[in-house]
histidine kinase
Amino acid sequence: MNATLISYGFASVAFVALSAMAVSRRGANRTGMFMAASVISALWAGLAALDAYHGQHISSLTAITELLRDAAWLYFLLDLVNQRQGMQPKTMSILRVAGYVMLAYCALLIVRIVADSLSIFPGLVDLPILDTLLGGAVSRVILAVLGMALVEQLFRSTRSEDRWGIKYLCFGLGGMLVYDFYLYSDAMLFQHIDAEIWAGRGIVNALSVPLIAISAKRNPNWDLRVTVSRRLFFHTAALLGAGVYLLIMAGAGYYIRTFGGEWSSILQAAFLFGAFVILLSVLFSGTLRARVRVFLSKHFFSYTYDYRDEWLNFTRILSQGDPGEQLCTRAIQAVAGLVESQSGALWLTREPHRFTRIVSWNLHHADGEEPVDGALAEFLTQREWVINLDEYRSQPELYEGLQLPAWINAIPDAWLLAPLLVRDKLIGFMIIGRSLGKIPFNWEVSDLIKTAARQAAANLAQMEAAEALTVARQFESFNRMAAFVVHDLKNLIAQQSLLVSNAGKYKHNPEFVDDMISTVESSVARMDRLLQQLKGGQPAVLTEQKIELGGLLSEIIGEKHVYRLKPVLQIDVASIEVNADHERLKRVLGHILQNALEATPYDGHIEVHLSLQDDDAVIDITDTGCGMDDAFIRERLFRPFDSTKGSGMGIGAYECREYILELGGRIDVTSTPGQGTTFNIHIPAENTRRETGNLTQGEIA
């Protein structure tokens, strides 16, 4: 049985079923157009099957019906695309006119077929241009390319959440159009329609019908929410333009082959290769792409910019890469990219009283400096304008007497000057080079550059603040180290001063002399450690080790022998060890005891009590001194650089608490004004050995 007859018979039956489905859902205008396209497709497939039955290749009536089928589907697609949101009324009118032109083209093709059949207008038909554009294979390729472009634009401009209702229509019609392109491209190449490819066309159309039917069921009225995308519109225009260009070049190549004589094949190959190279050069030309994008935005959209895409791209450029100087370059690239520029330079107040150039990106001779209190800075701060340097040179009166520095006017490619404002404070400015796309400067460009420059300024200010914070932290670390060193020196001086004050009274006492020598040795060792720390410029390296607290407390109390008041040490557990740095823990506990000695009168009492509670070593240092109120303990006791002593540094108690917290412990303070204070210190204990009974300082000695 004839394969072509079966193929187109199936296609006719499928389109009849699709037409019946469309009739049952008749309503909106688009539904009527869909029904018309389905009916004409069924008629075309039936006529093609009838041609196959009679052994006829392609009749004129079948060819005319095929053109009507193509025109109906293309107009239906164009009507769907015309639903897009965000288009100017002028653009929608242009699309409607394009639909009419397409219908007129199909009408001319029908006239060509009728003229060939009736042998009328022979001179008109034989014109080379009309013969090419209205030729059977070439004209069908043009229609297929137009259809594929419309399908691609419809699919990609439909919102992702709405594509479920349109994707099968795009797949079905797209498959039919791609097969038509394949069929007629082959016919153009070999100058005849391949019978096997033609026979398979009916099956392809029949298989496409169920896909179209799915979308028809999901869209009874074909009321789609289609949004326009400038990027996709540009891509589609580029694709369509490239397709038309290749068709024209192919036609020109055909004429070269036909009329070129002996060199026709060589000339055709050279011509087509040259045409392809020119196409690639055009497609990869940044300047041409920019100008085409500006042209399409200007004539087909209400606004020049797709602000969503522009802002996403702007944010992406600013946020990528490393911070620091690269952010300055990225800020220029992000702002300049909005106007299709590939050059710029940035000035910031890195030095007092003047703006200095931080970075230049492809902008030559941008080396000047500007005072922060100059006329330019005052103008930018007050007006917040984006200065068009070309407009300034031709109409300086528009800028209210502003006198730009000579070095700015000397930059050959400078175009726009944008202020960098943060909370109405000028932190710098940016000069942008000329646009590759020759974008006209208007209110929209000015507002966009001004807004983008503010955002870039915020990022740059954040970068400057982060760098300043890093430097401040480095100074803070150094100052903290210096404060602790000064604090230790103060304690050493106080200890030595006490020795000197008692030397006149006890210098003939051998025990006092021995204690004095021991104290001086300890002081020398501590000062040597401080000197090594200062030489290194870094805090001392802490070496944690197991420390037996009873021995450490005895050592600390022993060094306080120069005071008339003698602290009493009471130990409940013979051996309690903690893991800590020996010198730092000794300094911390010694400071608390030192404060107790200074706050307690000679007839008072100080007790140091060591015990074990659960897994913590507990040290209680209790005195009967002047005491503190709760507000002082809560708000000032552990605040750094807050001291009640005239010569104090105010960091001793702060260091005590910080180190105890580092060890995983805590400090609790209870005090009553006029009665005394107790420091309750908890430190996680290591190995312990409990013994009954209490040991006093005298017993340990």
Summary: The radius of gyration is 45 Å. The chain has 24 helices and 14 strands. Residues 542-700 form a domain with the Heat Shock Protein 90 fold (CATH 3.30.565.10).
